[in-house]
Each structure stands twice: as structure tokens, then as C-alpha cells.
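Progress against Task 2.4 (sequence-to-structure conversion) is shown through the following example record, which the project officer requested during the mid-term review.
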Amino acid sequence: MLQFSCPHCQAQVSARPEQAGQRFDCPHCQKRFKVPGAAAATSQSDDFFDWDDSPPANSAP
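C-alpha cells generated for the chain above:
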């Protein structure tokens, strides 16, 4: 099962993998949205936020 948040009400919902990319009605708020792909739905890795560890650029005086 794919686990993801509704983009409208933020409720945690799930769908079958074969529903990825299809329209889906949220069981909580009833709004329709597209089910994210498997990679987007399950991506919870450390690179979720594109952190930039480089020092900030010096601004001109």
C-alpha cells in the first residue's frame, strides 16, 4: 500500500500501488486529487529536504 497525505486536509491516506497517478477521492474531506507515484508516496529519507551544507555566500558591501 502507498501511504501519503491528502494535499487538501493533510489526512494520512493509503492507496494500492496500481492507483499511482490516478484520481483519488480523499475518504476524509472528499476532495479529489492525483495519487502520488510509489517513490513520492514512500519517500521519507534524509534527502527529503534538499539541505545545502555549504557556507552562505558573502554579500557585497
